[in-house]
Amino acid sequence: MSDSDNLGSAKNQRRFVAAWLNDFPCIEELPNDNTKFLCTICKQKYKVVNKQRLRAHVESKRHQKMQNNEFKRSEKEDAIHKFLPKWLEDIRFKSWLQMVPKDENKFHCTLCNVDRMCTGGVGNLIRHADAPEHVKNSIESGIETLQDIPAEDIHDSIQSFEDRKKTREIQFANLGRAANIPYSTMTKILTFFQETDPTILQHMTAGATKISNIVRNVLGPV
Ligand SMILES: [Zn+2]
Ligand SMILES: [Zn+2]
Question: What are residue 114's DSSP bridge partners?
């Protein structure tokens, strides 16, 4: 093998290949340097060697860990942008707060008659409750302003929600245990009901005969 052959193959191997973008969506090509690639998960540039090394990077512990963190972060951000039904139980907000139908990123204030973004979560609700316009509307409607609600009442209202949640979780676990349902199935069952329209849920029936008929006549064998 001549020197020029060596150089040639090395060159071919070490250049970024655009087709890799399909296999590894987390990497990006660098416009001014095709000897390196950018990993958008690790937020770092790495030397291009070949596809095997690229795969090794994506499967590496370090990269996987960064990816999990990224996932957790986006999950957290997601949650904070969305309306949380537990806010409706909070003594600080319950007398004026409503969900906005079909827009889970907003909340509605019945006193000010406005829709606002949920971005920032509870902090944002507190800011709204403290705003001069809202305070004025509260006083006019005879509703306790945030400043007037005793701290221990706030604590109790949050605690009572947490307590009721905990009680229900214990009852659910007990139901699962008594019925011998695998733990992982319990999660699926809960998710199923959480994804069901509450009105539909209230009207659902599931007698043994009905379930057996559905399985036999509608679903058929697995
Ligand atoms: Zn990476
Ligand atoms: Zn308001």
Answer: 109
* Ligand 1 midpoint to CA 113 (Å): 47
Span from the CA of 26 to the centroid of ligand 1 (angstroms): 7
Task: Extract the tokens encoding 71.
Answer: 């996932």
Q: Which of 32, 48, 78 is the last residue of a domain?
A: 78
Which among 29, 36, 26, 11 has a CA at the least distance from the CA of 63? Answer: 26
Q: Are residues 118 and 53 in the same domain?
A: no
pTM: 0.51
Instruction: Indicate if 39 and 66 belong to the same structural domain.
Output: yes
- Which ligand approaches the C-alpha of residue 132 most closely? 2
Structural domains in the chain (count): 2
Give per-residue pLDDT as tens, 90-132: 999 999 999 998 898 999 999 999 999 998 888 899 999 999 9
At 114, phi and psi to the nearest 5? -130, 155
User: Which of 57, 78, 99 is the last residue before a domain boundary?
Assistant: 78
Could you tell me the distance, in angstroms and rounded to a whole number, from the CA of residue 221 to the centre of ligand 2? Answer: 55
Q: What domain range includes position 138? A: 84-149
Neighbour count for residue 107 (Cβ, 10 Å): 24
The ligand with the least distance to the CA atom of 40 is 1
Same-domain status, 59 and 94: no
Q: 88 and 74 in one domain?
A: no
How remote is the CA of residue 42 from the centroid of ligand 1, in Å? 4
Task: Tally Cβ neighbours within 10 Å of residue 115.
Answer: 13
Domain annotation covers residue 165 = no
Q: Looking at the CA of 135, which ligand is closest? A: 2
User: Does the pLDDT at position 159 exceed 70?
Assistant: yes
Closest ligand (CA of 96): 2
